[in-house]
């Protein structure tokens, strides 16, 4: 094990950084997707709610590995060969970010929908009675209260997204699992390598869980 840490420790740490970077990219775009779809799902508009429901059910119904293959291999093939536009290629980082953003965005949409619906409807009615337009009332009154309940769930979703990055080793992204496979191939030390990788994930995830607990206590104190 000391040999792996000495020789490949820097490589594994770099791969951990790539994993965190991919998770951050995915979560950033997932928050945008989730906010749009989550708000659409609570609008008094059948078309918006139907589109939001289709997106959430479709994405959550497809395994992450299938989604990654579909975006990395399938979409460029569709664009270049079937549609005939040509010239489209996706890097592993781009495809991985899109896959994570879509997958995480579907779950984020449900978190945001639940957060908005947890706010007393009277808050929106009071804001509208004071003359605020719907979107301004949502922005100024409802969402600030909803975010208070959503943040712990968003951090938990980030932890799930961080672990989901390991699936993207199938498309060649140099994240921690993919790098660990290369280390195992070079050293034939399977148990030791995966034990180190598991410990690295554990440390990062425990830190995130602790941050979630601290943030949740502060939000409750602020309430």
List the helices and strands and how they pair.
Elements lengths: L1 H39 L5 H15 L3 H19 L9 H27 L2 H9 L4 H31 L11 H12 L2 H33 L1
Commentary on this structure:
The protein is built from eight helices and no strands. The protein has 223 residues and is mainly α. It has one domain (2-222): MetI-like fold. Helix 1 runs antiparallel to helix 6, helix 1 (2-40) packs antiparallel against helix 7 (176-187) and helix 1 (2-40) packs across helix 8 (190-222). It is flat and about 70 Å long.
Tell me the major beta sheet.
Answer: none
Total of DSSP H or I helical runs spanning 4+ residues: 8
The CATH superfamily is identified as MetI-like
Radius of gyration: 21 Å
Helix and strand content put the structural class at mainly alpha
Distance, first to last CA: 48 Å
Number of strands: 0
Portion in beta strands: under 5%
Which parts are unreliable, with pLDDT below 50 for 5 consecutive residues or more?
none
Which outline best applies?
A: flat
What would CATH call the architecture?
A: Orthogonal Bundle
- CATH class category label: Mainly Alpha
Helix content: over 70%
How many individual domains? 1
CATH topology name: MetI-like fold
The average pLDDT is: 87
Keywords:
MetI-like fold, mainly alpha, 223 residues
Short description:
The protein is mainly α. Helices cover 83% and strands 0% of the residues. The N and C termini lie far apart (48 Å).
């Amino acid at each position: 094990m000391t040999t792996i840490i000495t020789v490949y420790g820097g490589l594994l740490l770099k791969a951990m950084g790539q994993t965190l970077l991919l998770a951050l990219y995915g979560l950033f775009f997932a928050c945008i997707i989730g906010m749009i779809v989550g708000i659409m799902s609570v609008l008094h508009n059948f078309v918006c709610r139907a589109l939001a429901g289709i997106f959430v059910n479709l994405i959550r119904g497809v395994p992450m590995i299938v989604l990654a293959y579909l975006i990395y291999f399938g979409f460029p093939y569709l664009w270049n060969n079937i549609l005939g536009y040509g010239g489209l290629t996706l890097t592993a980082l781009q495809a991985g970010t899109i896959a994570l953003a879509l997958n995480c965005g579907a779950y984020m949409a449900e978190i945001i929908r639940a957060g908005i619906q947890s706010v007393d409807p009277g808050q929106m009615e009071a804001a509208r009675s004071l003359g605020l337009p719907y979107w301004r009332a949502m922005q100024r009154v409802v969402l600030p209260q909803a975010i208070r309940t959503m943040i712990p769930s968003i951090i938990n979703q980030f932890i799930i997204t961080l672990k989901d990055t390991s699936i993207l080793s199938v498309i060649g992204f140099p994240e921690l699992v993919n790098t660990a496979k290369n280390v195992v191939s070079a050293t034939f030390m399977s148990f030791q390598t995966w034990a180190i990788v598991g410990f690295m994930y554990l440390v990062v995830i425990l830190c995130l869980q602790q941050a979630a607990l601290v943030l949740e206590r502060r939000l409750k104190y602020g309430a």
